[in-house]
Amino acid sequence: MAFNSVNRRFVAGLALAGFMLAAAGCQSSDNGILNFGFGKKDPTAPPPPQDPKVLASQLRAYCPKVTLRDGTAFFNTYAKGTAAKPKKKKADAAADAGAEAAAAAAQTGPDGQPIDPNRDPAKIIYQASITDVTRDCTHENGQLTMKIAVAGKVVPGPLFTPGTVTMPIRVAVQHGPDVLYSQLHQYQVQVTDPSAATQFVFTDANVVVPEPTARDYQAYAGYDENTPAATTDKSKRKKKRVAAATTN
Hints:
Oligomer: single chain
Largest sheet: 4 strands, mixed
Radius of gyration: 38 Å
Structural class: alpha+beta
Strand content: 25-35%
Order of helices and strands: HHEEHEEEEEEH
Helix content: 10-25%
Strand order of the largest sheet: 1-8-5-6
Distance between the termini: 143 Å
Shape: elongated
């Protein structure tokens, strides 16, 4: 009888010790909540916060992406001047009205909009386009130096004449609204073959901007026709003559 009593107390002690160990194991889970999911994380627990800082090694390897703005991938060269108009003959009012209507229709595009006489598609000499852009970066002495390359082609138009095409290519780097670098290049390409496109590659290797503190620079490359035309010597002399005549 004594042996049976001791045996029952021994088994009861082992059971109590096992329960305490199980409870301790559950309370030491990784989210601090009683969890009977055999070590699985609580799906409702919030994820750990991410460190927003950019490492210095990442900044040294950072090279801003180059993109094309809308409307800057194409550049057309048009023929200048207009053909001599034939002398008018006497006609009745109906004929004159019909001629005016035909002339107006000839100056209207397929979409019904009037055609700019200086940008008539029938008067294109060359059409240039940018097909690819790329860049290369070096970091040194607190500055970021970029080499930006633009590849494209020049296609002869309906009024092709062999010669040199001068294309206004602008390269710029911005940090938010701030312009860190902007340069307009008058790049020239010689076109001689009327039956094939002429390939070209333009490179601006002198793009230097301050070393970025975050990966938030934006580089641009493309055609820029919105620049004032240079004043020629002839126009300067004409202005001087007008001014002299006014003062006299």
